[in-house]
Amino acid sequence: DFSYCFCDCSSLTSIPTGLFDNNTAVTDFSYCFSSCSSLASIPSGLFDNNTAVTTFGYCFYNCSSLTEIPQQLFMYNTEVTTFRYCFYRYTSNTFGFTLYIGSTKVINAASFVYYNGSYTRKIYAPSGSTTYTTFYNLRSSLRLTVYTY
Question: Buried (b) or exposed (e) across 56-77, using 16+ Cβ within 10 A?
Answer without folding.
Answer: bbbbbbbbbebeebbebbbbbb
